[in-house]
Amino acid sequence: MNLVAILCFIITLIGYVLSKKLHQKYPYMLLAPGIFVPFVIIVLMVIFNVSYDTYMIENKWLIWMLGPATIAFAIPIYEYRKVIQEHVLAISLGIVIGMIAGVMSSFYLAKLFSFDQETTYSLMARSISTPFAMELTSNIGGSVELVILFTMITGIAGVAMADMILLALKLNSRFAQGAALGNSAHGFGTSKAFMRHREEGVVACLTMVLSGVFMVLLGPAIIRFIVTYL
Amino acid sequence: MSTSLLSPKLLHIAQIILQLSFLVIIWWVASVIQHTLNLPVSAGVIGLLLVLLALLSGLFKLQWIKTGSDFILGELVLLFIPCVVGIIKYKELFLTQGWQLILAVFIGTICVMLATAYSVYLGFKLEARLKQKHKHHSDPLLKQGE
To answer: Based on the number of CB atoms within 10 Å of its own CB, is A18 exposed (0-12), middle (13-18) or buried (19 or more)?
Structure first.
């Protein structure tokens, strides 16, 4: 039994619960549990000289739970199956074109800034919901830690720019706006979409989950094709 | 009334724990399938597809997993906090290429947003045109009400 490791686990849990309450009271982005808790833990680890391997001894159980948690994404697909049936063409187009745009833009931007291979792959895998992005990145040779950080920045970026961009597009279609939010900013975008309008939220949620599944199944082939031929 | 010692809150927690255990069992079955058939997809995604099929075929009832699923999806952030802590391994990268990375993510996100918005809009128009031909008007979103 490693006491430090157990302490790391307990601090992560308690920190999460407290940070969630704090964020509900003061909804600043920097106080969001996904940003604030890791920050505090990293500071503590540096001060007390705890290694990442020690931190992970017990905390790997949280990551392990992501497997069963991924299954839970079946619920929104099932609950909104009528929406999928009704708009199968629009949703499929949005997923395929949106995902290709994400992978291609990441590929060329990574070339432009001359990122190394691991960073490039992580960037290409990032534009989907985190559990799916983690799987995709480990399939293609990216880094799990990097992809999580990238998906988070992606979510924040998408939410920050959404109102402005969607207003400028003047599409006047809740469906298109919801899909854009779900595809570009996954979980963050879905909450944002629900705040804007219920219909946007439903579509964002669906697009997010379906794009995640789509990329886990076909992403490796798409990414390999782009990397080899472009 | 002393028949039930369990408060509704405790019952709710018990239900969440039971349903989460159910998800873990499904995940375990899915990982056995994955290993036996040597599939390139994770047990999580295989489990997702299995549960979806089970729900659609009526084999599973939604209320068997709904409470646990809603709970875990609501607390998803907790599960990847340990990985975010892992960025201490990438200190060097962020010190040298931090702003390029953030810029790349922002531009990429704009691309995805624009591509998705326009393609869905186009798909929606195509659908409307197809539907007009079939004289068929029903939108499940409108039916569900606001």
So the answer is: middle
* Structural tokens at position A103: 């992978």
pLDDT tens track for B19-37: 999 999 999 999 999 999 9
B143 pLDDT more than 80: no
The DSSP line for A69-111 is HHHTTHHHHHHTHHHHHHTHHHHHHHHHHHHHHHHHHHHHHHH
Task: Name the DSSP letter for residue A51.
Answer: -
B contact test, residue of A57, A71, A115, A151 with most B CBs within 10 A? A71
* Ramachandran sector of residue B4 (left: φ over 0; alpha: ψ -120 to 50; beta: rest): beta
pLDDT of residue A166: 93
Partner B, chain A 77-96, Cβ-Cβ below 8 Å: 77-79, 81-83, 85-87, 89-94, 96
Contacts B45 to A, Cβ<8 Å: 70, 132, 135, 213, 216-217
Angle among Cα A162, A212, B130 to the nearest 5 degrees reads: 75
Count of Cβ atoms closer than 10 Å to residue A68 Cβ: 25
pLDDT tens sequence across A53-71: 999 999 999 989 989 999 9
**Token pair 């998705």: residue:** B116
Which amino acid is present at A170? K
A56: distance to nearest CA of chain B, Å? 7
Spatial neighbors of A147 by CB under 8 A, at least 6 apart, are A122, A125, A126, A130, A133, A134, A136, A137
Contact A173, A43 (CB under 8 A): no
Contact B84 A34 (CB under 8 A): yes
pLDDT of residue B63: 93
Q: Rounded distance, CA A67 to CA B37, Å?
A: 18
In Å, how far from its chain's centre is CA B21? 18
Would you say residue B5 has pLDDT above 80?
Answer: no
The CA-based dihedral angle spanning residues A69, A75, A81, A87, taken in that order and rounded to the nearest 10 degrees: -40
All residue ranges of chain A with pLDDT < 50 are: none
State both tokens at A157: 């970026």
- Please tell me if residue A148 touches chain B, with a CB cutoff of 8 Å: yes
Integer-rounded Cα radius of gyration of chain B: 23
